[in-house]
Amino acid sequence: MQQYTIYKAPSTPGLDGEWDGSVWGGIPSLDVDHFHEKGSDHRPVTQAKAVYDDAGIYVIFRVEDRYVRCVETRRNGSICADSCAEFFVEPVAGLGYFNFEINAGGTLLLHYNDQSAGEPHNWVPLDESRLDQVKIYHSLPQVVDPEIEDPTTWIIEYFAPYELFEADVGPVTRGPGTVWRGNFYKCGDATSHPHWAMWNRVEGELSFHKPEWFAPLPLSDGLTG
Question: What is the pTM (predicted TM-score) of this model?
Answer without folding.
Answer: 0.95
